[in-house]
Write a structure and sequence with these properties.
Layout lengths: L1 H6 L2 H21 L3 H54 L8
């Protein structure tokens, strides 16, 4: 169960469990008929949406990580440019 919690948030897990429960109830209520295929389709759509949300979350985290690294590089360059600019001796002109 701990592995599932790493990949799914609470709301997604609740949707999957609720959909499975409703699918089970429909299977008992209606039997193996055409309607069960419709219920299976609804379940698969729910799973697909949750998988897409998970993938989107992982990609968002990867982009955020890259942006953080880029920001630290830019801040490092900015700091080194400021230090180089302030340590340059000014030449005095003799007039």
């Amino acid at each position: 169960m701990r592995e599932i919690r790493q990949h799914l948030d609470t709301a997604s897990l609740l949707v999957v469990l609720l959909t499975l429960l409703l699918f089970g109830i429909a299977l008992v209520e209606k039997g193996f008929t055409h309607d069960v295929l419709l219920e299976a389709g609804v379940f698969l759509v729910s799973v697909k949406l949750i998988m897409m949300a998970y993938k989107n979350g992982k990609q968002s985290a990867a982009v955020q990580s890259k942006l953080d690294r880029l920001l630290s590089v830019v801040e490092g360059l900015d700091g080194s440019m400021r230090n180089a600019g302030s340590s340059t001796p000014r030449s005095s002109s003799d007039g």
